[in-house]
Design a protein that fits this description.
Blueprint: H1 14-35, H2 55-63, E1 68-79, E2 85-98, E3 102-115, E4 121-132, E5 137-146, E6 149-160, E7 166-172, E8 176-180, E9 184-185, H3 187-199, E10 208-209, E11 219-232, E12 241-253, E13 263-270, E14 275-281, E15 285-296
Parallel strand pairs: 9-10
Antiparallel strand pairs: 1-2, 1-15, 2-3, 3-4, 4-5, 5-6, 6-7, 7-8, 10-11, 11-12, 12-13, 13-14, 14-15
Helix pairs in contact: 2-3
Amino acid sequence: MIRRTGFFFMFVSPYQRAASAAARAIYLMFGRAQASARAPVAALIVALGLAQLDADDARAAETGITPHRGIYVLDLLQARSASGIVGARGAVYFEWAETCEGYQVNQHVRMQLAMAEGQPSVAALVFSSSETRDGRTMRFKMRQFADGVISEDLEGVAELMPDGTGVAHFGTPERRDFKLPAGTMFPSTYSQRALAAMAAGKTNFEGFLFDGSSADGAFHVSTFFGAPVERPKPGSKSNETERFWTNRAGYFALEPNDAEPMFEVGSLVNAGGVAAWFDLDYGSFVVRATLSEFEALPEPRC
């Protein structure tokens, strides 16, 4: 189990922007009692040790995130009988694009959970955001649905100050501001720095995250990297392979100061931030998202 300590080890790649929002949509639908993450993760965490980069990995780390769009298929990986869940299906559409001004994210999630008793429940989410290239400003808009009814509607802008602190201004559902702790970064900055650390053989990365998916402000995200493995390169029509790393992330609310995460995300991700799969772990049930379609996007002509 990932527990909160005095330090917070964090990793957020583009897929984790998708994963965290998808996970939170389900979390809000079923509540903390149902979704508290308690599964042990020690078996999934392997130290990178002295693993070295090859030339392709080094270039990927220097380049940063791979602009792309992908579709993930959602399925129930496992469930305890106490969860009451007997099946899950759905999809995640995720797009990370580079613009002349910065970075653009678009995301759509829909998941149906079949229950042992009663009718199936459906969670859905639509999200978009833009970040400036200097990592100082982020605009975001999100709408979540539970069984066809809007459960949360957020829109606003977040800004980081020269001293590292920040503020998130929400215009919807009501006008209010949240202070962001010193060291907070937005997803693309997170991704660029963490991917470089992962590819360079680091075992972890630390910091705070604000991704626009919550009116509660920032998260503590604690992540450990596993050992790299070779697997087919996304979008390749040949037998070309590249390195992927396992990692495990726990998402903690700032308030209350809980020792256990709201949810956990496990994954297999390459140096460009593209995940072959990711798991949304709620303790009593786990949903896996598997990459089914991938398209690399062109860089902007500025």
